[in-house]
């Protein structure tokens, strides 16, 4: 069996075991294969093994990959920092954006989403790690941003995303993910129809699934190790 296919199976088994341990249905957890830094051939191998959802975090690299793989029916997830001059690409080519942290970016995505496509599925990125991280809105600003995003016509607000600081401390991983889930539950109680928690990566997906993740974003465990600089950029 192909290495990528084997690793993909291993990641699916991890998700299944974590779900079962938490009394959850593994089918409620979508695996997004994060293909950043890997060539189109790696995506083709994962596609041949049945994978359909893929994540990219860098617009320029993503644009080349979208073109090279245009013959495949893939669902692209944009999971990286977004600048104003890169929103059109995401609006036109992606099914999901996980990294909304400013209203201005969300407004551009909504305005640029082609009428022929369904609304762009969107998550607000929250900084659950305080000073240990810079990306995402502070938790106390998430409700305001989520409400504004929910009002945009061509975006469909689905939930929250977080990238906690890397740590081997499983209890800390768990606390960060639980805090995102608690925040989502507060927003749901306040009337926002959220059904998605995008959290968990190669090294902490078990903790994320235990805490209620409905999407895990997994790169290196499927495609192999990335060069150091690219890892830091994630
Ligand atoms: C790179 C990246 C991932 C995947 O990280 P791995 O540790 O390789 O699984 C997940 N989410 C985001 C936002 C990333 O940039």
Descriptive report:
The chain is an alpha/beta fold. The chain has one domain: TIM Barrel, CATH 3.20.20. It has ten helices and eight strands. Strands 7-6-5-4-3-2-1-8 form an eight-stranded parallel sheet. Helix 3 links the parallel strand 2 and strand 3. Helix 4 crosses helix 5. The relative contact order is 0.16. The mean pLDDT is about 95. It binds pyridoxal-5'-phosphate.
Based on DSSP secondary structure assignment, what is the total number of beta strands?
Answer: 8
Q: What Rg, in angstroms, do the CA atoms define?
A: 17 Å
Largest sheet: spatial strand order: 7-6-5-4-3-2-1-8
Number of helices: 10
Largest sheet: 8 strands, parallel
What value does the average pLDDT take?
A: 95
CATH architecture: Alpha-Beta Barrel
**Shape category:** globular
What is the name of the CATH superfamily? Answer: Alanine racemase
Give the end-to-end Cα distance, rounded to a whole number of Å: 29 Å
Question: Strand-residue fraction?
Answer: 15-25%
In N-to-C order, the SSE pattern is HEHEHEHEHEHEHEHEHH
Q: Spell out which ligands are present.
A: pyridoxal-5'-phosphate
How much helix is in the residues?
40-55%
Q: What structural class do you assign from the helix and strand content?
A: alpha/beta
Task: Return the CATH class.
Answer: Alpha Beta
Spans of at least 5 consecutive residues whose pLDDT stays below 50 are none
CATH fold title: TIM Barrel
């Amino acid at each position: 069996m192909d290495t990528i296919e084997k690793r993909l199976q291993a990641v699916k088994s991890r998700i299944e075991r974590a779900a079962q341990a938490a009394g959850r249905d593994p089918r409620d957890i979508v695996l997004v294969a994060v293909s950043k830094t890997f060539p189109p051939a790696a995506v083709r191998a994962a596609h041949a093994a049945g994978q359909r959802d893929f994540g990219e975090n860098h617009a320029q690299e993503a644009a080349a990959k979208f073109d090279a793989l245009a013959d495949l029916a893939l669902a692209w997830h944009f999971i990286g920092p977004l600048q104003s001059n890169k929103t059109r690409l995401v609006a036109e080519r992606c099914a999901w954006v996980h990294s909304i942290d400013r209203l201005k970016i969300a407004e551009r995505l909504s305005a640029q989403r082609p009428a022929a496509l369904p609304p762009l599925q969107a998550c607000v990125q929250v900084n659950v790690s305080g000073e240990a991280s810079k990306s995402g809105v502070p938790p106390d600003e998430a409700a305001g941003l989520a409400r504004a995003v929910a009002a945009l016509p061509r975006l469909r607000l689905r939930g929250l995303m977080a990238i906690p600081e890397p740590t081997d401390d499983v209890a800390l991983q768990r606390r960060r993910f639980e805090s995102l889930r608690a925040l989502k539950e507060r927003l749901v109680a306040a009337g926002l129809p959220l059904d998605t928690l995008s959290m968990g990566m190669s090294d902490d997906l078990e903790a994320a699934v235990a805490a209620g993740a409905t999407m895990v974003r997994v790169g290196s465990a499927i495609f192999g190790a990335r060069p150091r600089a690219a890892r830091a950029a994630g």
